[in-house]
Amino acid sequence: MKILVAVKRVVDHNVKVRVKSDGSGIELNGVKMSMNPFDEIAIEEAIRLKEKGVATEVVAVSCGPEACQETLRIALALGADRGLLIETGEELQPLAVAKLLKAVVEQEMPGLVIVGKQAIDDDCNQTGQMLAGLLGWAQGTFASKVEVIDGRCTVVREVDGGSQTLTLEMPALITADLRLNEPRYASLPSMMKAKKKPLDLIKADSLAIDIRPRLETLALFEPEQRAAGIRVADVAALVAKLNAHPGLIQEF
After folding, report:
1. Residue 71 in 3-state DSSP?
2. Which of 50, 121, 175, 243 is the most exposed place for a label (fewest CB within 10 A)?
């Protein structure tokens, strides 16, 4: 069975994001980029399934500019067998990404698709669900445990009330949650070997898919700075402060 994993290039989670002075977007010049953390979990799960003998091949795919090759090379260093970049300089929103990934799925014919539950740059949490809908596949979102046995995929997913167990007919799609696994690190020897692994490029224009943005961002701005907290001597002083400033209670 082949597993396809979608990965996204985002601003590194340790970097403090800054808005451009004109409010047109996020400042990316000179900013460290990395693989979306939830996609790292997705790659790790695919590799573990291959190590168990469930999968025979893991293909990492990304959509975006040429620089996304760096992210795919990391996926290859972690253990993916092949990389595939759908190259485009256009702004890609979740529906556009889902359409591009659908074209890749129809070409590669994987038995399982694993994606991160969301990207930390936009937090949309939509691409996986949209892709499953376009494919007409069963889906297990927010997965915290995955088992593949006898052509069926059992997914334990996190919900508000605790956890839910689903049995999916394959092919199926899974979105990886935080507690699914602990991703491994890419060693230097693995990074060197990854340079020799195949990485194919497909121009998004060649797929004849409408990827025009459906939403327009008018402006971005920094959140207002919150006032510094104050210390009080005891409970009586706290109550007096709250009585004198009822608005403080609403802020809490």
Report:
1. helix
2. 243
